[in-house]
Write a structure and sequence with these properties.
single chain; mainly alpha; globular
Length: about 240
């Protein structure tokens, strides 16, 4: 199960790199950022405007850890979209890291025999399943996660599949993703695991989160890809 635990796993070396990146070669600036870290803690430093661009511009042997880069990228994408929710940003950063690992995005958990290539298959398995059980809970969560992962980070794939095969459009993913997170937030296990609030927030803001992920995909993950749909998204 994906948890909102990315910030807690960051190390001292991550924060030193943040100060280095923000200083952009200014020794005095680096000292100021390190002092800010000691006085105010990491959150203000991680929210510093321009941090994502500074990390991308690093030209040293030191590179951001996957945890640091994922959190900063997602947090700043959400802030730009008007979503100031650190716990939600942590969860979505963990989602990006988890689903980026081989075929994890097709499974409701790492060790599961069933693979899901289409959202309709998730919905079909949810129908008639015991609503109180663990598998039903994980299917609901995965419906939200997979919708955001696919429509958020791979909108051009969604558009191409719609053009070639008559597949669903982005609002379809918005609605199923919203429903998945909403249903997951209402499950008894969501309260037990302390994730009900995260799922509720994701359900309430799903279209906004998807658009934020679209921008993250366009500018950070696939900056050199040009498609008609990408041009329209960025008008």
């Amino acid at each position: 199960m994906i948890l909102a635990n990315v910030r807690g796993r960051l190390r001292a070396s991550d924060f030193r790199l943040v100060a280095l990146a923000l200083a952009r070669g200014d020794v005095g600036g680096r000292a100021r950022y390190e002092r800010l870290l000691l006085e105010d803690g990491p959150d203000r430093l991680l929210d510093e405007p321009g941090l994502l661009e500074a990390l991308l511009a690093l030209r040293t042997l030191a590179v951001p850890s996957p945890l640091l880069f994922a959190y900063v990228a997602v947090r700043h994408a959400l802030l730009a979209a008007g979503v100031d929710d650190r716990e939600l940003a942590e969860y979505l950063a963990a989602l990006v890291l988890e689903f980026g690992d081989h075929d994890r995005h097709t499974r409701i958990r790492r060790a599961d025999d069933e693979r899901y290539a289409y959202l309709v298959d998730l919905v079909a398995d949810l129908t008639g399943l015991d609503d109180t059980g663990e598998r039903g809970f994980l299917l609901r969560v995965h419906l939200g996660n997979y919708s955001l992962w696919l429509a958020g980070l791979f909108p051009d794939y969604v558009a191409a599949r719609r053009s070639r095969r008559g597949g669903p459009d982005l609002p379809y993913y918005d609605e199923l993703g919203r429903q998945g997170y909403q249903l997951a937030s209402e499950h008894r296990l969501a309260e037990r695991f302390g994730v009900a609030g995260i799922y509720r927030a994701a359900a309430e803001r799903f279209p906004t989160l998807r658009v934020a992920f679209n921008r993250l995909s366009d500018t950070v993950f696939f900056p050199n890809v040009s498609t008609p749909d990408k041009i329209l998204r960025n008008l």
